[in-house]
Amino acid sequence: MARGLFYLHTHANIIHGNLTSSNVLLDENITAKISDYGLSRLMTAAAGSSVIATAGALGYRAPELSKLKKANTKTDVYSLGVIILELLTGKSPSEALNGVDLPQWVATAVKEEWTNEVFDLELLNDVNTMGDEILNTLKLALHCVDPTPSTRPEAQQVMTQLGEIRPEETTATTSEPLIDVPEASASTSQ
Predict the structure, then answer these.
(1) Element (H, E) at 6
(2) Phi, psi of 180 (to 5 degrees)
(3) Inter-residue long-range contacts of 26-32, CB under 8 Å, 24+ positions, other chains counted
(4) Which residues pair with 111 in a beta bridge?
(5) Region label for 8, one of left (φ > 0), alpha (ψ between -120 and 50) or beta (otherwise)
(6) Torsion sign over Cα 72, 148, 105, 170
(7) I want to staple 49 with a disulfide (CB 3.0 to 4.6 A). Which of 70, 97, 111, 151 is the partner?
C-alpha cells in the first residue's frame, strides 16, 4: 500500500483523498493494489481538494480535513496509518471505541502501557508474527496518524520503514508496481 501511495504522490502527482481499507484490493498473489483514486483526477485543482475532503470516509479522514478542506499527501498518509491500525487491531475505524476514534484509542492504550490490548488476538496467535515487527509497525502507524500533519512521514518514508521492519517481504517485489495508473496515450485495444 505504501509503495502504491508513493507512486501516486510522486510519479502520477495524484492525491487519493479517500483511502480506506475497502479501496485496497488484493490480487492473485495477495499483493495490495490501491483503487478508487479516479475522483481526484476528474476534478479541477480547486474543486478537487474540497470534494475529496468531504468524500473522505469517516474514521479514515485526517482531522485537519474538517477545517482546511484540502487533501494532500499528509492526509493520505494519515489514512494509510488508519488502515495499518485497522489491520493490527482488527477493529473498524468507523466505530468509536470508548467515545474516541481508532487512532486516539490506540494512542491512549499505548500511552497507558496497554499495548497488548490493542492487537487483534488472531494476529498475536499467528506463529509467523514476530513481536518486534508488530510493535514497530504499530509505532509507524501511530506516526502516520499523528495529529500534527507536519510530523507525519511521507509515503516514501513509510515504505522505507516497512521495508526495514520486514525486509524479506518487501525486497522481493520492489520492482513490481502496486498500482495501475492508466496513461492518456495508452491504447484500449488488445
Answers:
(1) helix 2-10
(2) -105, 110
(3) 31/173, 31/176, 31/178, 32/1, 32/4, 32/178
(4) none
(5) alpha
(6) positive
(7) 70
What pTM was computed for the model?
Answer: 0.79
Domain coordinates in residue numbering, the chain: 2-173
Residue among 16, 18, 34, 24 nearest 178 (CA): 34
Residue 33: its H or E element:
strand 32-34
CA distance 144 to 96: 19
Strands 32-34 and 24-26, by their bridges, are antiparallel
> How would you classify residue 99: left for phi > 0, otherwise alpha for psi between -120 and 50, otherwise beta?
left
Three-class secondary structure of residue 145 per DSSP: coil
Tens of pLDDT, residue by residue over 146-181, are 999 999 999 999 999 999 998 865 444 444 445 555
Please give the Cα distance from 149 to 72 (Å, whole number).
Answer: 10
| DSSP string for 102-124 | HHHHHHHHHHTT-HHHHS-HHHH
CATH topology of domain 2-173: Transferase(Phosphotransferase); domain 1 (1.10.510)
Q: Give 186's DSSP letter.
A: -
Q: How many residues does the chain have?
A: 190
Chain-centroid distance of CA 117 in Å reads: 22
